[in-house]
Design a protein that fits this description.
This protein is mainly α. It contains six helices and no strands. Helix 3 packs antiparallel against helix 4 and helix 5 crosses helix 6. The chain is elongated and about 65 Å long.
């Protein structure tokens, strides 16, 4: 049994859980402010439309942030497998990973919020947010789909923009050269 890989695996589980918890909190609070409602009250009232929108916002944020978690995980794997790995480098890697994931969460929530507000402005005569608050399932489905499409289409750009923050270890010269 390789104790180092076991510890790294546990660190990844904890990181994923913490990111998920923070993302859920941010998504619910951010969307609640935009909708002008509280998820707890909507849940008690059985507002299916709001539930659809809140649920899709969580999935959308997960789609946006999963790349940050994966990049961090890859950097940890490379660092641990490096021939000169030292445990003293872990706090620095964790700090950069926290910055990377934190920025991903903030950018993700911002993208989703701007998407909702932009869509609301693009459909004059219909206040989708008010319709969702009233329980209009059709409006909730459209808004949920918009959130998911926004996440799917912006995730690669967010991934590319933020990957430069991860301090991938320097690989030995010639490692990535294909044999002739």
């Amino acid at each position: 049994m390789d104790f180092t890989l076991f510890v790294v695996g546990l660190i990844k589980v904890v990181l994923g859980g913490l990111v998920a918890a923070l993302g859920i909190w941010l998504a619910l609070r951010g969307l609640s402010r935009i909708l002008g409602s509280r998820p707890e009250e909507e849940l008690r009232q059985g507002n299916v439309a709001a539930g659809l929108v809140h649920g899709s916002s969580l999935v959308s944020l997960g789609l946006l942030v999963q790349h940050a978690v994966q990049a961090t995980s890859d950097a940890v794997d490379l660092a641990v497998r490096a021939p000169l790995f030292q445990w003293s480098a872990v706090p620095g890697l964790v700090a950069v990973a926290a910055l990377h994931v934190g920025l991903s969460l903030i950018v993700g929530v911002t993208v989703l919020a701007l998407g909702i507000l932009l869509f609301d402005r693009m459909t004059p005569g219909i206040d989708e947010l008010a319709e969702v608050r009233k329980g209009n399932v059709a409006a909730g489905l459209i808004l949920a789909a918009i959130l998911l499409v926004l996440a799917l289409l912006t995730a690669p750009g967010l991934q590319a923009a933020l990957n430069g923050l991860i301090p991938f270890p320097q690989l030995p010269e010639g490692t990535l050269v294909a044999p002739a």
